[in-house]
Amino acid sequence: MIALLVGSAWAQQSCIQPMSRIQLGAALGDIDQAFREEDILDARIRLDQLGDRFPCYEEPMDPGLFARYARYVALAWFYKQDDEQSTRWGLSSRWADPDLPWDAVRFPREHPLRQRVTDAPMPPLGGGDEHFVVPRDGAVVVNGQLVAEPRVPADLPVLVQVFDGNRLLVVAFWQDGNVFPADFVAPGAEPLPRPSWWGEPSTPQRVVSRDRQPFPVVPVATGSALLVVSGVSYALAAGAAATMPDLRTSEELTSARTRANALVVVSAAALVGGLGIGVGGVLLSAEGVTIRF
Questions:
Q1: Is 272 helix (H, G, I), strand (E, B) or coil?
Q2: 55: which DSSP letter?
Q3: Residues 97, 66: contact at Cβ < 8 Å?
Q4: What is the pTM assigned to this prediction?
Q5: Separation between Cα atoms, residue 41 and residue 132, nearest integer Å
Q6: Pairing mode, if any, of strands 145-147 and 169-176?
Q7: 8 Å CB contact between 73 and 2
Q8: Spatial distance between the Cα atoms of 215 and 207, rounded to a whole number of angstroms
């Protein structure tokens, strides 16, 4: 992605799998570790991969997390000795979160990247006499900041997210500068009102079109019955085994051992069957399991 960020506009990227806040934080941690180990190539590869996944982040972007990412990209350009790109990304980070602290050990005040990003003037807000076109009670979030008008700092790389009135992500894309796609703007100044859901702690679960499946009573009941059979069989096997020391003849001992082994087999089979039917019935009813953070 870093190689593509030099262009003036970036095409919208397809999203195959959503990205959670935990996954984003972990990826940023891996990038930080790569820089600490001075493995710049690995850091650049990870930055590219994570940049491609940013449009898959379904929550309104956290400005602090975006600022960290943008600063890492600025650092990658710094190592490539590209002052222009490192400054652009550093300013994008600063615009997202002006209070993002610098590591005083790695970036003392005299560090050239820190000086450049801190001292560079923020570009003026660009944009014309236009307004956003979004769903009712929707919103546009740029670098984690809620924006009411299509006016963002000119010539900076930004992440644009568009949400509907249910706080569900409609589309997200990278953009270079303040020229928004024609599909999302229209002539005339008309600031977007603050959406009613802004500031809520989490996004509601995505609504699906299928009807809710009923609780699988029969599989659960059958599985529970088999688990009871498993427990009883195991108890009988244990009882049969306990009588063996008192037996006198080899025939009695062989019979008791055979009975105990058979009960153990029945217990194991009932246990496996009970778990399989019960858990399988629940999973089939739920049409799979989805884990969200």
A1: helix
A2: G
A3: yes
A4: 0.66
A5: 39
A6: unpaired
A7: yes
A8: 19
Instruction: Report the SS3 class of residue 208.
Output: coil
Exposure letters 213-227 (e unless 16+ CB within 10 A, then b): eeebeebbebbeebb
CB-based contact 114:102 (threshold 8 Å): yes
Tokens of 123: 């570009």
* 93 close to 120: Cβ distance less than 8 angstroms: no
CB-based contact 276:210 (threshold 8 Å)? no
CB 55 within 8 A of CB 17: no
Give pLDDT tens digits along the chain (293 positions).
454 443 334 444 556 688 999 999 999 999 999 999 999 999 999 999 999 999 999 999 999 999 999 999 999 999 999 999 999 999 999 999 999 999 999 999 999 999 999 999 999 987 778 899 999 999 999 999 999 999 999 899 999 999 999 999 999 999 998 888 888 889 888 899 999 999 865 544 333 333 334 556 666 667 577 667 667 666 676 666 666 666 567 666 677 677 767 766 766 776 666 566 655 655 555 444 333 33
The Cα 82–Cα 44 span in angstroms is 14
CA atoms of 30 and 281, how far apart (whole Å):
39
